[in-house]
Structure formats: C-alpha cells, structure tokens
Amino acid sequence: MIDTVVVAPTAESGGSSLAGVSWPSIVAGAVAACALTLVLLAFGTGLGLTVVSPWAGSGVSATTFKIGTGLYLIVIAMLASSIGGYLAGRLRSGWSGVHGHEVYFRDTAHGFVAWALASVLGAAVLAMPASSIIGGTAAGLTQGAATSASQTASPMDGYVDTLLRADPFATGAAHTQTDPRGEMLRLFARSFRNGGDLKTADREYVSKVVAARTGMTQADADKRVNDVVMQVKADADAARKATAQLAFWLTASLLVGAFCASLAATEGGGLRDGRWGSRYRR
What predicted TM-score, i.e. pTM, was given to this entire model? Predict the structure, then answer.
C-alpha cells in the first residue's frame, strides 16, 4: 500500500491573489519624480546664472559650465528617480504567498516602470517648461538683458553685419541706397542649411557686394568673405559638438535614473514588508 502525502502550500510555493503590478504606486512614484525634476531644473537654472559672468576673468569657463551641467543632470536623475522608485516600491500592494525572489523582481520592475513612466511624462508634460527654463538660461548667458527684437533676429545677422562693416577711415566707400542685408541673409541661410557652403558664383557675388559696400579692395573683400565663412562653419561645428555632448549626458542621466529607481524600489518594498536590507534569499 502506497501512502499519499499531501503538502500544504506555503508562503514559498503559494501564489498571491493580487496583481503583480500596482499601477497606483507606479503612477504616484512617476508623478513625484516629474515634480522633483522640475524643481531641481529651476534650482539648477538659478545656480547656473550665479556662477557665470559676462565680465572677462569672472565666473566659470565654458568647459567647466558644460561639464557641471552634465553632472547636474545626472544628479537630478539620481535624486528624482530614487525618490520616485522608492515611493513606487513602498506604496505598492502587499503580496502574500509570493517567493522572496519573485518579490525582489517585482519591486525592481515597479521601480523601472515608474522611471519609464516618469520619462514619458517628462517628455510630454515637462518639455515646454523645461525648454523655457533652459532657453532662458542660454539667453541670459549669451545676451544678458537683450530686447525681444534682438532675440527674434536671425542667427546670420551677426555674420552679415561683419561682412558689411565699413572702415570709418576708408575712402571711397560706395554706400548704395538699397541695404543688401536682407539678400545676404537669405543667401547665407539657404547656402549653409544642412551643412552646406557658398557656391562659387554666390561667393564671388558676395565678395563684390562687400567690396562695393565697404570700399575695400577685391582681394581684401575676398579674404573677409573667406574668414566669415570659416567662422560660420566653426560656430556650426561647435554647436554640433555641444549638442552631441548634451545628448550623451542625457543618455547617461537616463541610464543612471533607471538604475536608481529600480534599486530604490527594492529598498522601499523591503521596508514595507519589514525585510529592509534583505537579499531575498532562502
């Protein structure tokens, strides 16, 4: 006769009647992370304006400012994601009869999903205020108390003004009745769009306009045009590199935020269940 042994389900083998995902806690953590991110962005804007100065020899350098901005983005991601992930783990619904390793995985997943939702909400909701804050900071760093008219001017205005700047001590400057700035702006904007360059015919025409406008010799006008074209390319390349560096810093901050949110969620869940610091081992 074979005896039949019935094993009662325990906390290790039984399943929970509750869902494995607690959306209210995830949403709460994501919203908290977004709000804290906006607060830290506003604080960082004020902090950035205090460390720069328009006076020579004062304030931090451009390289230091770029590195500091990137590191601050990582700090924002660490703080906001950690708090959001902790709330997602601490506020989740309890799971009875779930293995410790499964609880660890679910808590980690709650933190990761809360970070993902916060990132999506941040891109959709915080894009406009964040852009306004960052744009205001950039305008303050580069222009100071610039008027609204100068803020709406074309970026090519400075280059064209450099081209048509006449020497006050030069003689024989032929100032025409029609200001060629509008035509030059359109020509430069069309030529340098998407990394282009002035065509040979356009370059010759610009040199002739500069020579007639400023009273310079044709050789000097050609040299000025070449110098300004090189300056346009150098500034465009610097902007490209700055954008690439910002993209790398943003990527690093997002990855760090995902890690911090997942880790904080496991700690929050452990505190809720009274297993803080546990590795969820058998």
Answer: 0.69
